[in-house]
Specification:
Elements: H1 7-26, E1 28-31, E2 34-37, H2 39-49, H3 52-70, H4 76-100, H5 107-137, H6 142-174
Antiparallel strand pairs: 1-2
């Protein structure tokens, strides 16, 4: 008989993965005004372990806490979008993973496709936020805004590739040792 998971266990898992995301986000290399970091790797990893809602919550909260700790001058606009964007990253990764694992596909392909869907949703939302912020709030010239978006798209894509690779290896090496909360 399957043991029922209680709410305290879910809350603990969300808090644990949020903490992992805060720490992993600090492992960074700065490029221009963006960062290459391992936070997205942990967001994807939580998406592979937790249900879509709990993965989204852990990713959104962990990333929001990171911004509050290390970028306290961020205003509400940035914090709101950080939560939404990272929530979507893990939510869609988890959703895709849960659907694809029922199909007879290669496990590594499932992990890569799930990570890719999560990362694409994040990148689209992030670049949209950058466009709104730079063009409408800061009133920057459209050429400057598009150049900034192009540079951020490159670093976000590099972050995405790293995140997909790291989360895939983490999942494959730890999957038998971690309790799934799906």
């Amino acid at each position: 008989m399957k043991k029922k998971t209680n709410k305290i266990e879910y809350i603990t898992q969300i808090a644990l993965y949020s903490a992992f995301i805060v720490v992993a986000s600090k492992l960074e290399i700065r490029i221009y005004d963006t960062r290459i970091h391992f936070g997205n790797s942990m967001c994807l990893f939580s998406g592979l372990i937790l249900s879509p809602l709990y993965a989204g919550l852990s990713s959104g909260l962990g990333s929001l806490i990171f911004d509050l700790l290390f970028y306290p001058s961020s205003f509400a606009f940035n914090l709101f979008f950080t939560f939404i964007n990272k929530f979507a990253l893990a939510f869609f990764c988890s959703l895709c993973f849960n659907k694809l694992k029922k199909i007879e596909l290669n496990k590594i392909l499932i992990l890569i496709l799930s990570g890719l869907l999560g990362q694409v949703s994040y990148i689209v939302l992030y670049l949209f936020k950058v466009f709104i912020e730079k063009h409408f709030f800061y009133k920057l010239n459209l050429t400057v805004v598009l150049t900034d978006i192009f540079l951020k798209a490159i670093t976000s894509s590099l972050n995405a590739i790293i995140a997909i690779i790291v989360s895939t290896f983490l999942f494959l090496s730890l999957r038998n040792k971690i309790k799934y909360l799906k």
